Amino acid sequence: MSKRYIRGRKPLGTTPKRKRRPLGREQHLPSSLLAAVLELLAGQNDAMDAIEIGRELRLSHHEMFQLRTVLEHLLGQRAIEKKGRRFCLAVAAERLRATLDLTAKGSGYAVPEGEQAKSGKDVYIAAHNLNTASHGDTILVAVIGSGRGRREGRVIQILHRAVTRICGTFTATGAGGTVTPDDDRFPATLLIRRGDTLAAGDGVAVVAEIVEYGSERQGPTGRIVELLGDARTASVQMRMAVLQAGLREHFSAEAEAEAARLIPVTACSEDRQDLRHVLHVTIDGETARDFDDAICVEQSGDQFTLYVSIADVSHYVQTGSAIDREAYLQGTSVYLPDRVLPMLPERLSNDLCSLLPNQDRPAFTAILKFDATGRRVGERYTKSLIRSRQRFTYTTVNQLLYLHDQQARATHSELVPMLERADALTMLLKKRRIARGSLEFNVPEPEVCLEAEKVAAIRLAERNQAHMLIEDCMLAANEAVAETLAKVRHPVLYRIHEYPDPGKLETFTDAAKALGFHLPPSEVDPAWFAQVIEQARNSPAEYIVNNLLLRTMQQACYSPDNSGHFGLAAPYYLHFTSPIRRYPDLVAHRALHNLLAGLSPDSARPVPGKETDLKEAGLHLSQCERKAIDVERNAHARCSCLFLMDRVGEIFAAIISGVTAFGLYVTLDDSYINGMVPVTSMTDDYYLHDSRRYRLVGEASNRMYQLGDRVLVRLEQVDLTTKRLSFSLPQAIRS
Prior knowledge:
Elements: H1 31-42, E1 48-49, H2 50-57, H3 61-76, E2 80-83, E3 86-89, E4 95-102, E5 108-112, E6 123-125, E7 138-147, E8 150-160, E9 165-173, E10 176-181, E11 190-193, E12 205-212, E13 221-229, H4 234-245, H5 253-260, E14 272-274, E15 282-284, E16 293-300, E17 303-311, H6 313-316, H7 322-330, E18 334-336, E19 339-341, H8 346-352, E20 360-370, E21 376-387, E22 391-393, H9 394-401, H10 406-411, H11 416-435, E23 446-451, E24 454-460, H12 465-487, E25 494-496, H13 502-514, H14 526-536, H15 542-552, E26 557-559, H16 583-596, H17 614-644, E27 651-660, E28 663-668, E29 674-678, E30 687-690, E31 695-698, E32 704-706, E33 710-719, E34 724-728
Helix pairs in contact: 1-3, 4-17, 11-12, 13-15, 14-15
């Protein structure tokens, strides 16, 4: 240690009484010793003097001088207290059990668990305060201060390691090799010693098991346990996305055996109504393999009857069974370009619970009556046995109803009248929904097309009026079931969507004004948002406005406490219509079954585990949903890199979808792939960031690049490891 840090210091324990000033975060502080001292004091009931601390930590004579600096720093940070000559963890220092959310920049946030989570904001942890903790680890955090309105902490103990295996790219060396992690939230390169490489070739994608997590002075070591193959192939990248997220790839032998023993329901019973005479049909995408919802619409005079029949998963999947436990843990099916990770075993999802055409299947049916204006005037629910008449695709229904394809109408002449009634009803339902303020976002959904191991194309997913017909039927059923269960106070998980965050709303209004929109002067409610969306419809900035509005919204989640759904402007809403792929829908089925059976609300558990309540289940299942969304986005980013990997140097038409001080975010017109133009690549001028108007302005040239502008960009770099795409603006590069 440099002498200037210890010159003039008095012996430990004799520091004059004066106001201590934090030493800050100087690079010279021995951070590993910081962690060791905090961890030691956290586990002590009694205070310790410096000699005892040094003896317990087995410090050398030189390290005892460093200990003094560390103790003064911790006293200044109020992480510890001094009692005479003895030290202890500060009584006032808050200690939290938390999960670490690591960022790509190397710092992290401690997300408190349990009751402590109610305190609100997460705790910021600087990179040098991580104490070797990695993303997802369960940690004990000491709050050591605050800054910029956020608490700051230090990891004092790692309670559970979340990451025990990583996937990445192997680089051979004379001593063995290294693995560069595929996940940039795990920043350390893994050292692989000779003999632990599994004969991996240079540049091969691998899975490595972490043997030693290392320290802040020495990196982690591991051994390779699986060779994945060429990282430039789609199947390897999809597998890496699955492994990175820690998703289950197979069901347990117990769950598979349980599924194999299930007996199909082929007949009606006392509590199951025969609805095989009803003209049910399923309408799904061309590639769908599980069909969990079927509809039929009948009409008598000016009154409509809508049948929404959903696969009766709750009959086959009993609470607490092996299948149920695994379904609950995953929470949802995950859809990737080349595979599906189903929530239920294939025996259920593609067979027993799939409403296949011309097959008798058990269902849970909502029978809803509507008047001539689309107002619901009655509802009834029943366990049923149905027989789907036809497996329709959205494309076929679009041809039948909206393109009036005569050949298709002749082929399906028996079912066309029923579909026309469904179209008439859903038009009424949609009109009422929009009138109350339900939001109709128009955000393009990119679709990845694979050919063998290549990404052949990324293009806009087709969406037609048949999609909307089915959506309105499902929304009607979800709202009806939610209202029914709410009014009788049967516990269930509602799908809630809270009022937008005021800070994000202010950011949106600034951006909208910068784009030239005149915002409605009325109160900000769903109808206000609907007016903004309508104002942007078919304008050049429609994509940007819809995206910004979505970012303004809170994330919808599951909760036993109903607070309504802001985006749908619905006082009651839950998920009932997809129990094959979403666990909350299965919870709704169980709650509705209890109601129909006359059971008390507390007579049956809707989720596995005696100690699990619905509030805890709502948090868990909301996290599962977000995890699935993150995995799907991650997979899309990987496919985007593969698609553009051999196109460096090409020019693309794009729109500026975000503006920051460090560059422009752009979205390509044809593929809706996102990337960035770093401001460092804009060498024709020095660009200033106008944050209020969402633009970069050239200091000398006054050239402007603003949110929503159309630009031509050149692809400069594809980084498959970080999944980042870098572009440049040809006209903003000095020749």
